[in-house]
Specification:
Elements (H helix, E strand, L loop, with lengths): L2 E3 L2 H4 L4 E3 L1 E4 L2 E4 L11 H13 L6 H16 L5 H17 L1
Antiparallel strand pairs: 1-2, 3-4
Helix pairs in contact: 2-3, 2-4, 3-4
Length: 98
C-alpha cells in the first residue's frame, strides 16, 4: 500500500496514513470508497448548490462547515448530487427549527 503524507496540523507532525486523503479535517480511507467512484465532481457541485441556496458565498468558515456536512452525507451513503443536496436541505431545515 502506498503511504500518503498528510497535513501535520491534523494528525501530528510527520504523520503518515495509508491510502488516505485529508480534506479539511475529514479523513477518507480510500479502501472504503468503491473503485467506480473516480469522479467526485458531484460532491463539489452539491457543495456549490447548497452554498448558493443559503447565501454562503464569501464566508470561508461557513463553506468549510457545509463541506464537512456534504462529506458526512457521502460517508452515510448519499451517492449523487441530488441526494446530497436533498439530505442537506433536510438537515438545514431541522437545524433551523431547533
Amino acid at each position: 500500500m502506498r503511504k500518503t503524507a498528510v497535513n501535520g496540523e491534523h494528525l501530528g507532525a510527520g504523520a503518515r496514513v495509508q491510502c488516505s486523503i485529508l480534506l479539511r479535517g475529514a479523513l477518507f480511507d480510500a479502501r472504503n470508497i468503491p473503485p467506480y467512484y473516480q469522479d467526485f465532481s458531484f460532491i463539489k457541485h452539491a457543495l456549490k448548490t447548497i452554498c448558493r441556496e443559503n447565501g454562503i458565498e464569501r464566508d470561508r468558515r461557513a463553506r468549510v462547515e457545509v463541506a464537512a456536512m456534504v462529506i458526512a452525507l457521502f460517508q452515510e451513503g448519499a451517492r449523487s448530487e441530488g441526494e446530497i443536496v436533498e439530505r442537506a436541505r433536510q438537515r438545514w431545515s431541522e437545524a433551523s427549527i431547533q
